[in-house]
Design goal:
alpha/beta; Rossmann fold; 2 domains; seven-stranded mixed sheet; four-stranded antiparallel sheet; 11 helices; 11 strands
């Protein structure tokens, strides 16, 4: 008997009425059940509700980002910059969930007109101070979409965002409204069919509300008449290593970062602790991750994060 009963209608596609039970999950935040809509194939947790800004700002995983990360380090950012290294000058790019904006800062260097939105005011302050970015905003996505002075964009990105939303269909419908004709939407989200998926505590509610694969994401975007024009899996080894190291997390990096806020003299200590944490991860998780990665290659099992480009659907678009 699942912890929770399935809804009468799918909260994602707003059409499906039949659901497959996947698994239960219990934490200090409550009891949750994971269901898969038989129509759209998207998996969602019930209760299906984003916990809000205050909850995210209190999580340890967000503490050290604004202190340690000023360079491009995420796999999906690196892959984007490699795939789209010859973007025309002056094109408009909007990054939803921009964090401290190191990604769009690099695009600005390359001649793009960049915009960013994030709920964390500390991230946006860092973006303005360190990268001299002007069009970055601390607000909800819904509030941003209602602004009257925003332009139409050539590219809209949202990396590791969609799995946090409790209104993904409305979100992409609003994104489409501010996208130029012929524009692209590019996103990333964790692959739900990856190995060791249930070892990643961040892939459970209330942090993540949905789980995705190629079919599920494609079905959502068909709702706005968009199809996949490019897809690939990235960060596969790192994802496996991170999952293996889940049980060995101490939180020391984040605790040190929290104590060091506003104190540049202690920043060196934070970086040393962070370096030690990375070394520990490679020593503990690196070797088994290598074997799992090789196994995945032999069995053609996709791991890591899905990076997907969407365009308005045409015959050649999947």
């Amino acid at each position: 008997m699942p912890f929770q009963q399935p809804p009468k209608i799918c909260p994602i596609c707003q059409e499906g009425k039949l659901f497959k039970f996947v698994k239960d999950y219990r934490s200090k935040s409550g009891k949750f059940s994971l269901f898969e809509c038989e129509l759209c194939k998207i998996q969602f947790w019930t209760p299906f509700k984003n916990p809000g800004v205050d909850w995210y700002e209190k999580q340890d995983s967000f503490t050290a980002r604004g202190i340690l990360r000023y360079k491009i380090y995420r796999d999906y950012h690196k892959k984007f910059l490699k795939l789209y290294k010859n973007l025309p000058p002056n094109i408009k790019v909007l990054d939803l969930g921009c964090g401290i904006s190191e990604f769009i800062a690099e695009l600005q260097k390359r001649g793009c007109e960049v915009w960013g939105v994030d709920f964390d005011k500390n991230f946006i302050e860092i973006a303005k101070k360190n990268f001299n970015l002007k069009n970055v905003y601390t607000m909800s996505f819904d509030d941003f979409f209602q602004k009257q002075d925003i332009p139409q964009f050539d590219i809209i990105t949202f990396f590791e965002v969609i799995e946090h939303l409790d209104n993904p269909l409305k979100f992409i419908q609003n994104a489409k409204k501010i996208l130029k004709p012929g524009g692209k939407i590019i996103l990333s989200t964790p692959e739900r069919e990856r190995l060791l998926v249930n070892l990643a505590h961040l892939d459970f509610p209330p942090h993540h509300l949905t789980r995705w694969n190629r079919e599920a994401v494609s079905n959502l975007f068909k709702k706005i008449n968009f199809g996949i024009s490019h897809i690939e899996h990235i960060g596969q080894f790192g994802c496996l290593m991170s999952a293996i190291n889940e049980k060995f997390r101490t939180g020391l990096v984040n605790k040190t970062a929290e104590l060091s806020k506003g104190n540049n003299k202690k920043l060196v200590m934070v970086k040393l602790v962070h370096l030690g944490g990375n070394l520990k991860d490679y020593l503990i998780g690196g070797i088994p991750a290598i074997f799992l990665w090789l196994f995945s290659k032999l069995t053609k099992h996709e791991n890591g994060t899905i990076l997907i480009e969407f365009k308005k659907r045409r015959k050649r678009i999947i």
